[in-house]
Amino acid sequence: MKNKHLKIIFFGTPEFSNIVLQKLIDSNYKPFLVVTQPDKPTGRKKEIIPSPVKILAQKHNIPIIQPEKLKNYKLPTTNYQLGIVAAYGKIIPTEILEIPKYGTLNIHPSLLPKYRGPSPIQATILNKDKKTGVTIMKMDKTMDHGPVIKSKKLKIKNEKFTYEILGKKLFKIGANLLIEVLPDYISGKIKLKKQADRKATYTKIIKREDGLINWNKPADYIERQLHAYTPWPRIYTFFNGKRLKVLKLEISEYTIGTPGVPIVSGQAIKYDDGFAVQTSNGLVIPSIVQLEGKNTQTAKEFLNGHPKIIGSTLN
């Protein structure tokens, strides 16, 4: 089947999805319909912002639908041959997955069956994995359970990978892999491989409270937490009952204390012209912070306005 005759519906929402959508367009697999999440209020002013996928689809004159949910939802057409999903962010019912002749394919940013579920990139960072990858799979009724079409590994040499940097890298690999396998998949030349369910591991939906810093953890874990949870939910602690976000930080393997006096995890101490926080193993040294309801500040600026943070225990 020639590319121009393959009718594709694309499901996606964030910038990661756009990497795949743009690759499809550039490779003569332009979808005839895009499904994305509804426009949402964003930021302090709660401005209604369209998803990145909607913006890109409009640029290329691709029709768009934005259902609140797909359960019991009827697509405007069932006359298409393939569904492609890349970080859509909502559950797609089985009856929609099974509409197209060639099924619905998903680009999943892990080496399935490892890290099934909604947060594989965050899990990779938090667990300090040395390798990850991307899987192109055919979706079935169970999340991330369907047979594998092809996967590709990525060695992690940079332990400072952030969620956005690693995510972009993985979806770029995934987009290229998708274009590579589509012709043989459509022609039936690829033998799908069943996942080894016994080896499956699972990730969770990330919630706001996951960003709460546990100062009893090592400093390097808190640094990975920052990398995994930026831009959302971001990491935070509490000072005087108010949420204090840590937007940038450095770490040190050294601790500062008085001989014979136990170190208290979560205790803020003076450090250069700012402050640092004791952990179970080393120091977290914030450089940019944001107190609830306030603008971002350097650690020095925050300390000047809140000198009582020194000696206090954050929680």
UniProtKB/TrEMBL annotation:
NCBIfam families: fmt (TIGR00460)
Domain Formyl transferase N-terminal, residue spans: 7-182
Molecular-function annotations in GO: methionyl-tRNA formyltransferase activity
Protein known as: Methionyl-tRNA formyltransferase
HAMAP family attached to this UniProt entry: Formyl_trans (MF_00182)
Biological function: Attaches a formyl group to the free amino group of methionyl-tRNA(fMet). The formyl group appears to play a dual role in the initiator identity of N-formylmethionyl-tRNA by promoting its recognition by IF2 and preventing the misappropriation of this tRNA by the elongation apparatus.
Short name of any one Pfam family annotated for the protein: Formyl_trans_N
Residue ranges constituting the Formyl transferase C-terminal domain according to the UniProt record: 206-306
Family named by the database record: Belongs to the Fmt family.
The entry's keywords: Protein biosynthesis, Transferase
One GO cellular component, as annotated: cytosol
Superkingdom of origin: Bacteria
Record-listed (6S)-5,6,7,8-tetrahydrofolate binding positions: 110-113
Reaction catalyzed: L-methionyl-tRNA(fMet) + (6R)-10-formyltetrahydrofolate = N-formyl-L-methionyl-tRNA(fMet) + (6S)-5,6,7,8-tetrahydrofolate + H(+)
EC number: 2.1.2.9
